[in-house]
Design brief:
With 440 residues, the chain is an alpha+beta fold. The chain has 3 helices and 28 strands.
């Protein structure tokens, strides 16, 4: 009898444990049915930032690559220009005059946490992010002996540890460009009495002269650079490429046109450049990295000009650039060209303002609230062929990522099994007590 009573006590204890366990697993199933706030991220998409004076002064705006979701990111008393995305799409660096001179600022993609990282009485401008995202290179006039000259500086993204890596106060340095591995910087300097391409380590050591020229652009593998250079007789400009060690200098264009401002594609296959008096007219061209195949992708109308920079999309399938009359004439529009579909459309639609300096990146960072700024949605010149309805494409709805329904069902199955076990044990105990008392 004592043995039987012990068994009954064990069954009662086990029944209670299974009942509590069933409640736990049901709770886990309900929790799995809810979206975790960390899972509420939008799919990664292409987003551009650019400069515009549509609100009276130059401010920085953000828009999706289909032209939707336009938002103003900066609101200050000075001009805000030269926006550049970080490589991970989590930050933007830009130049601002809100403090009375040009300073380098960083901010989040939604415009929050705008921070001055240079804080110097001299002008600082032309910022570019390191591929490692921990540092920013820029041009500064803080150590120049002549007004207007610039030196190449590097500063940590939090504003600490600024260093001068060009170390030539009597010359002008500009166009800093990071190598893909973030270990070196290429830049342009006139320290030899004419523009030349130099490479230096990020700590300022191993300064190397490569060749006469300007506007360097790294290949995707970091082994070569493309740049523009003028012939000895100053008759024309051509696009060259050279190995990063200074060997194998090659003229890629070598024609009667004036070819300038090369930009290597992110996949390393193509180089975009501007050609004046080219065989197919003035325009934006792309060529294979060996120079053997050249294609006109946009012919510049005779009454317009193209503003630097022109930029590639992260996947190398599209390009963005700004065209207008002149920087002094308040008109400039940003166009996108789909190189695979050979289509182009407006990113901006304005009639009396400048839209300049696009920067393109993929990001999942969303604006926390709608800040759409209405603009004129009308073609601004006959050179622009598409209407706004043709230019805009449908925007896919974001996909919300939730936990697996299989995991949720798993918790429910365990909970139901434990409830059945608890109910069965309880029924057995009631039957045993009823029989012992003579009811059965």
């Amino acid at each position: 009898m004592r043995t039987l009573s012990g068994i009954i006590r064990i069954l009662i204890l086990f029944s209670n444990v299974t009942l509590i366990g069933s409640l736990f697993f049901f709770d886990r199933g309900l929790a799995s049915n809810k979206l975790n706030p960390m899972d509420l991220k939008q799919d990664v998409k292409d987003v551009l930032v650019f400069t515009s004076n549509r609100d009276g002064q130059f401010e920085i705006y953000r828009t999706d690559s289909d032209g939707r979701g336009l938002a103003r990111l900066t609101f200050s008393t000075g001009d805000n220009m030269e926006p550049v995305w970080s490589y991970d799409g989590e930050h933007i660096v830009f130049t601002s005059t809100r403090d009375g001179n040009k300073e380098i600022y960083t901010m989040n993609p939604d415009g929050s946490q705008q921070t001055n990282i240079t804080n110097n009485a001299a002008d600082d401008y032309s910022p570019v992010w390191s591929p490692k995202e921990d540092s920013i290179a820029f041009v500064s006039e803080r150590e120049d002996s002549d007004f207007g000259d610039g030196e190449i500086f590097i500063v940590k993204s939090d504003g600490t540890s600024p260093i001068n890596i060009s170390q030539s106060p009597t010359s002008t340095e500009r166009s800093p460009k990071w190598s893909p591995d973030g270990q070196r910087l290429a830049f342009e300097s006139d320290r030899k009495s004419k523009p030349g391409i130099y490479i230096v380590q990020v700590d300022g050591t191993n300064l190397t002269f490569l060749a006469p020229g300007s506007t360097p652009s790294w290949s995707a593998d970091g082994k070569q650079l493309a740049f523009e250079a003028v012939e000895e007789d100053l008759s024309q400009w051509d696009i060259y490429k050279i190995n990063a060690d200074g060997s194998d200098l090659i003229n890629l264009t070598h024609d009667s046109a004036s070819d300038t401002f090369p930009v290597w594609s992110p996949n390393g296959t193509y180089i975009a450049f501007k050609s004046q008096f080219g065989k197919d007219g003035d325009g934006l061209y792309i060529m294979t990295s060996d120079g053997n195949s050249v294609e006109l992708i946009y012919e510049i109308p005779s009454d317009l000009k193209i503003f630097i920079p022109w930029i590639w999309s992260p996947d190398s399938n599209m390009m963005a650039f700004s065209i207008g009359y002149d920087i002094s004439n308040p008109f400039g529009e940003i166009l996108l060209i789909d190189l695979k579909k050979t289509e182009r459309f407006h990113l901006t639609f304005t009639t009396t303002v400048l839209n300049l300096q696009p920067s393109w990146q993929k990001t999942s960072n969303e604006l926390p609230f709608p800040t759409v700024t209405p603009v004129s949605l009308f073609p601004t010149t006959e050179a622009f062929e598409q209407t706004p309805e043709q230019a805009f494409v449908s925007t896919p709805q974001p996909t919300l990522k939730s936990r697996s329904s299989d995991a949720r069902n798993y918790f429910y199955i365990i909970g139901c099994t434990l409830i059945c076990m608890s109910s069965t044990l309880t029924l057995i105990m009631f039957l045993w007590l009823a029989r012992r008392r003579g009811y059965l």
